Amino acid sequence: MKHLTIKDIAKMAGVSTAAVSFVLNDKEGVSEETREKIKMIIERTGFTPNVHTRRLNLKKSFNINLAFKQNVSMLSNMFYMEILASILSESKNFDYNIVLSDISDVEREKRLLNNILNNDTDGIIFLQDPSQQFINKIEGTELPFLVVDTQRPNANYTAISVDYKNAAKTSVEYLITKGHKRIAFIGMETNTGFYHNTFGGYKEAMENANLPIMAGWIQSNAYDEKSSYDCMQSIIDSTMLPSAVFCASDVFAYTSMLCTKDNGFRVPCDISFFGMDDLHSSKYVQPSLSTLSVDEEYMGQAAIRLIDKMINKEEYESIVLSSTTIIERTSVKDLSK
Amino acid sequence: MKHLTIKDIAKMAGVSTAAVSFVLNDKEGVSEETREKIKMIIERTGFTPNVHTRRLNLKKSFNINLAFKQNVSMLSNMFYMEILASILSESKNFDYNIVLSDISDVEREKRLLNNILNNDTDGIIFLQDPSQQFINKIEGTELPFLVVDTQRPNANYTAISVDYKNAAKTSVEYLITKGHKRIAFIGMETNTGFYHNTFGGYKEAMENANLPIMAGWIQSNAYDEKSSYDCMQSIIDSTMLPSAVFCASDVFAYTSMLCTKDNGFRVPCDISFFGMDDLHSSKYVQPSLSTLSVDEEYMGQAAIRLIDKMINKEEYESIVLSSTTIIERTSVKDLSK
DNA sequence: ATGAAAGCGCTAACAT
DNA sequence: ATGTTAGCGCTTTCAT
Predict the structure, then answer these.
(1) Residue range A304-330, pLDDT digits in tens
(2) What is the domain count for chain A?
(3) Quick check: is A330 in a domain?
(4) Which of B281, B285, B295, B297 is most worth mutating to test chain A (most A CB atoms within 10 A of its CB)?
(5) Cα dihedral angle (A146, A147, A148, A154), rounded to 10 degrees?
(6) CATH code at A13?
């Protein structure tokens, strides 16, 4: 059976194609009477206008591109996977196709750029900041875009971000409340903005409590399973053992705890651990990881809603999440009693 | 700057639009000389033909849709998330956009159907089997599609599947080799094909070894964290404690081990655990989970390559993975010595 | 309010 | 080998 066209509908309704088009686009120019008649026929036949032609004419694609870099470590992607799931879930409420765009290298960046040039995307949601160079190119196109989990506080683009500094501070303060005084830090230096914030929060909490920071306790080379294991080893090999470790990501805590056990220490009896993100798997590691929850679900929802507003030129503004919800599980020993 | 059109290129080259079109589509009808000239100009100007028009005329979208249901449990999606990552990774080598299509309910199924009617997809990769009803509709459209991780061995569509029966059998045989005789089973009844295979493999291995199966050891209501925890509780509450538990998915093992510990038993001293899938996080649970690896990376790669062949009407055939790679970690006690 | 017709940017059949 | 032109299915301007 041939796919119906607007011509067919027009013929069936005894009107011109223009009339049908007006109805299709909720525009004026047809009497209520004929509008209803046309609507009926569209309903009955299940007619849907050809999307390519619409895109061609309307210069609108009904696509939203989700752009991201594929990281080395699968685990470090878990945070974004959870956001992705939420974006998908929320996209049901909108009429967009979600298109995935890998921008791990220049070659792939070009593809996305090409999509833009062709009006094949209405807006872009970046997971993490793309290179500034790429941002510049995008900005030149006037296309709406937003960055989820940006680490550039002063960037002049729309974004959904987490106040990681405050998150880190809250986390460390929690450890202090639990009676810990020797607190180490495992972070990810390669992500400079993120590092600056998480370390800053840690430092502030420590200083406010007049707690000393040993040089060997600051490990900043973590970025995946192996590297965070090594970070923990360095801490253990340092001059003084901490009573607790604050990890800037749950993922880092997983292998750090492993390392601790491999060295014959017990968690949390000998060393406590506190993470950040509250990934789904953090419930299942042993001991279950106490951590600060970051609402990935909300981030995903907000992303879709925000980009939709941008596309429709409604009012909008960037969103900063200040997550301060402590998830108490069993990886932190209470020294305060 | 206005986007160049084929007309502009034709004018610049002093030829007709047809000539340019032929070059664009690698077709005959132009002399080598003019072909080169046109190619040069395209190269120099960075011209890319409007994709909507091409789609309209060629009845080809350069899109591949990835269709899936969003499950209740995030964790049960982890397996598919890993396949998704691999699909994305492999898609770099092809010229398709990857479009995500949620088909969790009829309303969303319609959207995908609409994409098909509009020639807005060249092929569909399903993660898990969709409803037979939906399959029927798709088959009516003649669109290439394939199912990753199908559980319908006799289905007449192209698929990438895992020989779960053999996988389960191999797993249980491994436990038997390690001296275990009382082996329980935790599976997912709601996925009938999967259940049939995994339980079948378990049963065959047990029978071959002349090992008895206690009724209380067979728990089939697992499908997420909570339910598999409950399954394990039932096993513990049954008349005889097993020395090992084979879980049809790593995810089930995570909380089963938790349950075991909550009941005062130790893993693997008192009860051993063996999983299936080898998810990334299985390295990090405590104790690290011994499991049978399923090559999600390969499955993803194969999916893209296969659908591409189908689209281009090259030769192809379904793929069955027989995964028999045991990943030995620390959740299984060796009773054999 | 309604219809005719000129685009949108390309492909491909048809002339030359 | 090359150019001309009729579509593809819709939007939108311009007459009526």
Answers:
(1) 999 999 999 999 999 999 988 999 999
(2) 3
(3) no
(4) B281
(5) -120
(6) 1.10.260.40
Contact flag A52-B119 (C-beta cutoff 8 Å): yes
The range of the structural domain enclosing residue B171 comes to 164-293
B130 and B19: one domain? no
pTM score over 0.85 = yes
A14 three-class SS: coil
Query: Which residue on chain A is closest to B92 by alpha carbon?
Result: A108
Whether A257 and A237 share a structural domain: yes
Strand arrangement, sheet containing B145-148: A319-321, A159-162, A145-148, A123-127, A63-68, A97-102, B97-102, B63-68, B123-127, B145-148, B159-162, B319-321
Specify if A119 maps to a domain: yes
Residues B223-270: pLDDT tens digits?
988 899 999 999 999 999 999 999 999 999 999 999 999 999 999 999
Q: Which of residues 8-47 of B touch strand C (CB under 7 A)?
A: 16-18, 20-21, 24-25, 27
Nearest to B284 among A77, A254, A287 (CB): A254
Would B207 be classed as within a structural domain?
Answer: yes
User: How far is the C-alpha of A187 from the C-alpha of A196, rounded, in Å?
Assistant: 10
In a domain, B13, yes or no: yes
B154 touches strand D (CB under 7 A): no
